[in-house]
């Protein structure tokens, strides 16, 4: 049971009819007709199987960030909890390009930034932010952060996103602007603690004068996809602003409806399966 401070108020449970075999559906995108090819949430027999799955999808998330041009030197860090030892998390190694992250160079670290498995160093700013959130919110499974062009630019405005599209509505009442430690490099523990609470309560965060962060209670797939989507939403917002034309925004009812159906943790996971399958097929070295 989560205490009131740790409840995300955007969480919704949809009342949908089951499929034709009587299986529960949690999304309108899950087919009512059974027997069709469609991504299914995995089930695991042991911690080792689940760990392998999480690590593969963490690597794919890093590769996806490379595909989208989210690299900026050594900046950027993605994390996923270990299923057996949730006080530890897997992350990408310091000074390794997103496109070169593989199963063999991932590192396992604790919330204090001590590497307990792996040969590479850890990004200090990464563990300060991610470690604080993972420690503050045991229910948070994964986090993503990178220094992206459009996200960083929009974060400089200190404004939340306007609900100008269905894509933006995925973040309706589920993203926040954080001004604490704005623009400061998060290398001191107090910097991480000052922003951890808001990050843990939202799907996406716009850290003023810094950049984007996403977190998930579901999976690294979910956190990674919504990071990509949040960057695109910032790009779209900047393009509209540059046009000088006042956009038509969604009504609260429409934005809420879209949030419920296209902005859930499950939908983030489902979107990412397309990305994962493509990367796994075209970049088999990720499994090295």
Descriptors:
288 residues, alpha+beta, L-fuculose-1-phosphate Aldolase, eight-stranded mixed beta sheet, 8 strands, disordered N terminus
Describe this structure in words.
This protein is an alpha+beta fold and about 290 residues long. It is about 40% helix and about 10% strand. An 8-stranded mixed sheet has the order 4-3-2-1-5-8-7-6, sandwiched between helices. The longest helix has 24 residues. The termini are far apart. The relative contact order is 0.16.
Biggest sheet descriptor? 8 strands, mixed
Give the distance, in angstroms, between the N- and C-terminal Cα atoms: 39 Å
State the CATH topology: L-fuculose-1-phosphate Aldolase
Number of domains: 1
How would you concisely characterize the structure shown here?
This protein is of the alpha+beta class and 288 residues long. It has helices spanning 47-67, 124-136, 149-155, 166-169, 189-201, 220-243, 252-262, 265-282, and strands spanning 77-81, 88-91, 107-110, 115-117, 142-146, 175-178, 204-207, 211-216. Strands 4-3-2-1-5-8-7-6 form an eight-stranded mixed β-sheet, with helices on both faces.
Q: What is the element layout, followed by pairings?
A:
Elements: H1 47-67, E1 77-81, E2 88-91, E3 107-110, E4 115-117, H2 124-136, E5 142-146, H3 149-155, H4 166-169, E6 175-178, H5 189-201, E7 204-207, E8 211-216, H6 220-243, H7 252-262, H8 265-282
Parallel strand pairs: 6-7
Antiparallel strand pairs: 1-2, 1-5, 2-3, 3-4, 5-8, 7-8
Helix pairs in contact: 1-6, 1-8, 2-5, 3-6, 6-8
């Amino acid at each position: 049971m989560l205490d009131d401070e740790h409840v995300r108020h955007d969480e919704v449970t949809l009342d949908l009819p089951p499929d034709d075999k009587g299986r529960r559906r949690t999304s309108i995108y899950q087919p009512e007709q059974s027997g069709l090819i469609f991504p299914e949430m995995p089930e695991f027999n042991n911690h080792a199987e689940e760990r392998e799955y999480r690590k593969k999808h963490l690597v794919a998330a890093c590769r996806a960030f490379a595909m989208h041009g989210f690299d900026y030197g050594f900046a950027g860090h993605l994390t996923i909890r270990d299923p057996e030892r949730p006080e530890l998390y897997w992350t990408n190694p310091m000074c390794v390009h997103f496109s070169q992250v593989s199963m063999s160079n991932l590192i396992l670290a604790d919330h204090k930034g001590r590497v307990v498995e792996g040969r590479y160093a850890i990004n200090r700013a990464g563990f300060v932010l991610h470690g604080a959130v993972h420690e503050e919110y045991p229910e948070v499974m994964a986090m993503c952060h990178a220094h992206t062009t459009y996200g960083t630019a929009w974060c400089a405005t200190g404004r939340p996103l306007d609900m100008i599209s269905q894509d933006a509505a995925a973040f309706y009442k589920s993203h926040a602007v954080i001004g604490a430690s704005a623009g400061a490099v998060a290398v001191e523990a107090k910097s991480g603690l000052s922003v951890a609470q808001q990050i843990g309560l939202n799907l996406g965060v716009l850290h003023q004068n810094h950049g984007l962060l996403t977190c998930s209670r579901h999976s690294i797939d979910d956190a990674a996809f919504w990071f990509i989507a949040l960057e695109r939403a910032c790009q779209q917002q900047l393009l509209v602003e540059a046009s000088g034309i006042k956009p038509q925004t969604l009504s609260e009812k429409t934005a809420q409806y879209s949030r419920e159906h296209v902005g859930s943790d499950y939908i983030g996971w489902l979107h990412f399966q397309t990305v994962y399958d493509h990367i796994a097929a075209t970049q088999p070295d990720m499994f090295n």
